[in-house]
Design a protein that fits this description.
single chain; 300 residues; Spore Coat Polysaccharide Biosynthesis Protein SpsA, Chain A; 2 domains; two-stranded antiparallel sheet; 9 helices; 37% helix
Length: 300
């Protein structure tokens, strides 16, 4: 099959959004695009419902994983399936609660004509806009943590210039297939959150450029699978920020990250239930001792 772009859409226990995301890509009518929907070990009859809802869509393949292994593992599984079905030059990773605006795929492809471009990301809106979700960003020198630009900011054209950035949000980004394989895919130890920062940093350290192109637009209905303010989201966010800097950063950046997390997150949680404070501390401890992958706890 003559496919240039494989769109990989991970999903967990969310039939409606996943089908809608696949339908939106198919509606573009581009025969050089294949869609791989990946069910990440959803419970009950969810995989069967997904299969039923997707079977009529041309150019869409469903990969059903037996075990819930997390976002990064689902992305990697989607890549393996894409390799079995086609020889794509590019992989576009898209959250199942995100949708592409008209012309987004073509716009994402354009910057790859520039020298050494390895990844390209779109302008991402929260919902249907005008508030922004992400326009890429940079790594903080002190903590190695992401410094996102544009998050929760109303779009008035201030991010309408294409530019090089250091990281892209994982809800939507395109990467050269050859680079993805050179890097060994996404690091599955994260389970969810920070895996996109990890692969971006590895690409930068290999000398590749990461480009933000505002001509590509994505609408992201943030947090439908996990819930933005859930205890599970808090745990994985805290744990993985620590794991990321421990794995990729320097000792001083680890200490700076711990100070930053306690100074900011602890203050935000101080007026909430004690349970969330325990979740925060569990994330810190597991991040420091390298307890990664899926986490089962009575706290969430």
């Amino acid at each position: 099959m003559n496919v240039r772009v494989a769109v990989i859409i991970p999903s967990y226990d969310n039939v409606r959004d996943t089908i809608a995301a696949c339908e939106a890509v198919v509606s573009v009518g581009d025969s050089s695009v294949m869609v791989i929907a990946v069910d990440d070990g959803s419970p009950g009859d969810v995989p069967a419902k997904l299969a039923e809802g997707l079977c009529h869509l041309p150019g869409v393949c469903l990969k059903a994983c037996e075990v819930n292994s997390g976002f990064a593992a689902a992305c990697n599984a989607g890549v393996v399936t894409a390799q079995e079905k086609c020889s794509a030059e590019f992989y576009l990773f898209l959250n199942n609660d995100a949708s592409l605006a008209s012309g987004a795929i073509a716009a994402l492809l354009q910057p790859f004509a520039l020298p050494n471009v390895g990844l390209v990301g779109p302008k991402i809106y929260l919902g249907s806009g005008p508030r922004l979700n992400s326009v890429g960003g940079y790594f903080d020198n002190a903590t190695l943590q992401k410094r996102e630009e544009g998050c929760n900011v109303t779009d008035v054209g201030q991010f309408d210039s294409q530019r090089d950035v250091e990281f892209l949000m994982g809800s939507a980004f395109m990467i050269r297939a050859s680079l993805y394989h050179e890097l060994g895919g996404m690091d599955e130890s994260y389970f969810m959150y920070s895996e996109e920062a990890d692969i971006c940093l590895r690409a930068l350290r290999r000398g590749f450029r990461i480009v933000y192109n505002p001509a590509a637009v994505v609408f992201h209905h943030h947090g439908r699978t996990m819930g933005v303010h859930s205890n599970r989201a808090l745990y994985y966010s805290v744990r993985n920020k620590i794991h990321f800097v421990c794995k990729r950063g320097r000792s001083r950046q680890v200490f700076a990250t711990l100070f930053m997390l306690h100074a900011t997150t602890w203050r935000e949680l101080a007026g909430t239930f004690a349970k969330r404070l325990l979740v925060f501390q569990l994330g810190v401890l597991d991040g420091l001792r390298g307890r990664m992958g899926r986490r089962v706890s009575r706290l969430f």
